[in-house]
Amino acid sequence: xxxxxxxxxxxxxxxxxxxxxxxxxxxxxxxxxxxxxxxxxxxxxxxxxxxxxxxxxxxxxxxxxxxxxxxxxxxxxxxxxxxxxxxxxxxxxxxxxxxxxxxxxxxxxxxxxxxxxxxxxxxxxxxxxxxxxxxxxxxxxxxxxxxxxxxxxxxxxxxxxxxxxxxxxxxxxxxxxxxxxxxxxxxxxxxxxxxxxxxxxxxxxxxxxxxxxxxxxxxxxxxxxxxxxxxxxxxxxxxxxxxxxxxxxxxxxxxxxxxxxxxxxxxxxxxxxxxxxxxxxxxxxxxxxxxxxxxxxxxxxxxxxxxxxxxxxxxxxxxxxxxxxxxxxxxxxxxxxxxxxxxxxxxxxxxxxxxxxxxxxxxxxxxxxxxxxxxxxxxxxxxxxxxxxxxxxxxxxxxxxxxxxxxxxxxxxxxxxxxxxxxxxxxx
Length: 428
Fold this sequence. Notes:
This protein is α+β, with helices and mostly antiparallel strands. 34% of the residues lie in helices and 15% in strands. The chain contains 18 helices and 13 strands. The strands form three sheets. The protein has an eight-stranded mixed beta sheet, sandwiched between helices. A three-stranded antiparallel beta sheet has the order 6-7-8. Strands 12-13 form a two-stranded antiparallel sheet. GO terms for molecular function: oxidoreductase activity, acting on CH or CH2 groups, with an iron-sulfur protein as acceptor.
């Protein structure tokens, strides 16, 4: 991929050498000497390292404590148990969509607007490391064009909180932060120590992140042409959609993905990502993603959960540039969950090709859609990660599994007890 730059290209701040190189490291080298559960959020690599113990979600999950500070309460029963506390749920897209964006370009457009209107002095976001498409390089963007140049997902571990050192050294007081759930947890946990006048937190959903070399391995396993993939997503039709440089779309059934070639889930996903309970980024001011929006992805609909007064301010800033539609929800996610719990206890062998095609057809025809699909994915991640913590890091459960997880999964308590011979919720 060419890295030549036009004379009119936006100025890119020169990152510290460590951040420019760290994204390219293999997991073993990158996380060497770290705790067993580490998502490399960036707190430990900058001057805020002394705050690690009070901020790290894998040392002490303070999500429910932070919720009470942000909202004056914790999650109510219903969708809040899965989606987090929110005031409004909207399905929307930029009109027109931003070219080359992962979806419609809402996240980078919002960051650029904040700088254009003078509401912030900088935006912490994630560019691509030089010479790569997906290796994440955290930056402090000071112009709208610098933010726009970061469009496109980099589904890899990114130490974005390291950039807070630059913010403090530059004397900036008004910033926006774009990040994932574990990063936002750490940011919220030390927010009062940062001395900021204004902080906007734009959350992106995150699940099963990985390092850049492991992402490359994944693409080599799943795609016919891994070097030309520009976007990929796990979609509601139970297929991975991979967009290539020539605009073609490659579709791979979930059931056709041979995880064994990657060494299983632990072979590609860091233990921290398998111990995370905040796919929905519940501590942000608003979360912008795609999973609850309707198909097809070519129409580029997104969804947002507006969580706080500041989140409502952010959406109002974006609203003149978007079109909206009503959310959809279809199917019944609860029908398949007992089978999923059985599979967690005893993973099945990979089925023969004809059976996989039949399963994929049934999933597309009768599986959950829209908001119900989002609910199903979150429930599965909560169940899988709870079981991973219990099997691999049981002594940490009380510190890193928030109480809302057990409430969200309570409807499956009988099935869980039958399969695993223990209660879903721990004793009081």
